[in-house]
Amino acid sequence: METQWPLVIFTLFVCLTCGTLGGMSILALKGQGRNLQMTALITSAVSLVVGGIASATHLSHVDRMMAVLAHPTAGIFLEALLLGLLAVCIAVYALLVKREASSGARKALAATGIVLAVAFAFACGVSYMMTSRPVWNTVALPLAYLGTALATGAALYLVLCAALKVDEGDVKKAGVYAAAGGALSLGL
User: Fold this and answer.
1) Is 40 within 8 Å of 81 (Cβ atoms)?
2) pLDDT at residue 63 above 70?
3) C-alpha separations of 2 from 5, 6, 8, 12, 160 in Å
4) Is-above-0.90 flag for pTM?
């Protein structure tokens, strides 16, 4: 089986998006990381667009893309739906942050972002579970995707903390999350 590079790029950037948005949303629920929210949202949006473009190039023809969207039981349909929902969540969340909306509204979007990020990362892993690949046909695969999302999102958060010279306590927490996610991914 040859390597499908668009799918590799798609899953990498989806995990990065989910980890960044999910981690930033967890911090937002705790009332932390406020100065990184907009940067994390923009980074998540860019990452989601890159992943979406990679996914579209894998399908390569418009008729194939439309066929996927016409079959709601397919795993790739669920990925496309979650990609769209996550994009809307990121856009609305960024709007709330920009307009300095109430804490309750931002926390509601943070909770929604966490649910969508976990669902999307898990769904990507489920898409690759197939009986023709017995090693992949296990729940360990979607759990590894969740671990990868946690590790990549936390690692990106560390980069953002360094670039924006953020509090050292936030950096230590992100380092622990990155290590935990990496261990989860490698352990499965």
Assistant:
1) no
2) no
3) 9, 12, 12, 18, 35
4) no
Q: Which structure tokens are listed for 181?
A: 């996610």
The whole-chain average pLDDT of the chain stands at 82
Distance between CA atoms of residues 92 and 19, nearest Å:
18
Q: What is the pLDDT of residues 152-165, one digit of tens each?
A: 888 887 788 778 87
Which residues have CB under 8 Å from 2's CB, separation 6+?
none
CA dist., res. 129 & res. 142, Å (int):
8
Contact 52, 90 (CB under 8 A): no
Instruction: Provide the 3-class DSSP secondary structure of residue 20.
Output: helix
